Amino acid sequence: MAEGGVRHYTEWTPRLINRSRYEYEDESKETNTIMNLLGYGPVIRQKRIEAWKEFDRLQNAHNNKNNTGWWITAGSKSEGLTCFLESDRDSLHVLPFTVCVEDGFDTRTLPFYINVFKMDMQSCNAGYCRLLVERICPSLPWVIIHSATNDEHGSILMNSTYFVEYYREHYRWSDSTVKHARAGPSVPYSDGPVRHDLVGAFHCNCLIILQKWASRARHWPPPEIVEKVIAMGAFVTPIGFKWSEYNDIEWRICFNTAETELVNNLNDTQVKIYVIMKMIVNDVLKPQAKEVTSYILKNIVLWLAENNPQTLFHSGSLLHWLHEGLDVLRTAISVRQLPYYMIPERNLMAEREFDVDQQRELVRSITDMINEGPRMLLRLNKIRQAIICHPEPLLWYSKMRTELEMLLLEKNNIEIRCSDEDLMIDQSSEFKKLFKTYIRMAQIGLLVWMRMLLEGSSVDDPSVVVNSILS
């Protein structure tokens, strides 16, 4: 078995749970209510999802006049799981006129102006590939020219390290942008309080991989979502397997839009399991070097959803399934094994760096939390503050935060509409909307600030309050 390989997913599948009554049902329902108030309920999530979809649509309509590719919001923002400043905004820039294909794909079916790379997966770990130049056309982005290299056989390959370096140096950065050190395939940067992770990518046709995923016996997702995921295809991003001797010329196969679709079709309880597990990692486990990432947690929840009937996931079973998810995480850390949901042969734990002491400490911490039952929630900052807060202030603050966030997301979309004359809209009407949005956002910031002062806060800057609300 290749380094980083895993057992087939059927050997790993979490145990099936089937019961009508769960331990801690009342506490589960109370936790569900608190999560709604904290901004993780289905209504606010759907509004976020729709707002970011509209942002992408407007941005691409504005930018694609010059055939510069497509921008896709990915990660927690596209899934409606985080407030505006709560985490980085993950953006995928998909280059135009370029596609990567599996071995055996008939490239004659593609238009003449499309650049084609063949995916060589034979010499790579599962989930990774090399990109061999199959066909080059006049419509060749500069980043491809910069990233091309030769192997020992004279074949032209794409170098993933050169690709990221080109993005870092030549992307259209604004004067206010602060670039940060490379993180995996991404170029992290910040613009004021907003943090971004930009990843350049190529679209990828990998029907064989997707059909293999689709053929699994499953409880979830339903057939129509499976078909939608297949139609979305995949991407390759510039990062090789960490321990590979040739990782500079390897690329990772990713399913960003497909995974967003899957997460957006989880039920409410499954989503909250995912969010609470992220809180546990950030507030309690606090791994030193990304030994446990949000992506690992997402895969655990996707496996739980696939392998168990959806009727078992409800507000009364939230804590039960949270314990199940933590148990899977504990096992994954202990044996250093967790199959990637889309390509089970890829082991997500194979590239994690932790020594025996770190491994033992993480396992011990997770075991302690499982044994604590519902009391473990008091370790989580947001939930603890919500529990000890009087209901009336919490409800009021939740209402203010939700309105402010929706106004901010709408403001961003209005600004794009106002900046593009080609969108054929009534710009005077849009400017009026924008002005009203700014006024209401300022009012909310002042209202929250004044209430905080009355309750003894020492914060003297309303803008700090606004950033805190949106974090």
TrEMBL record:
- Which species is listed as the source? Dreissena polymorpha
Read off the SMART domains from this record: Mab-21
Cite the PANTHER family for this sequence: CELL FATE DETERMINING PROTEIN MAB21-RELATED (PTHR10656), CYCLIC GMP-AMP SYNTHASE-LIKE PROTEIN-RELATED (PTHR10656:SF42)
Keyword field: Magnesium, Metal-binding, Nucleotidyltransferase, Transferase
- Supply one GO molecular-function term: nucleotidyltransferase activity
According to its UniProt record, which protein family does this protein belong to?
Answer: Belongs to the mab-21 family.
Q: What is this protein called?
A: Mab-21-like HhH/H2TH-like domain-containing protein
Chain segments annotated as transmembrane: none
Q: Which cofactor is essential here?
A: Mg(2+)
Q: Which residues form the Mab-21-like HhH/H2TH-like domain?
A: 273-366
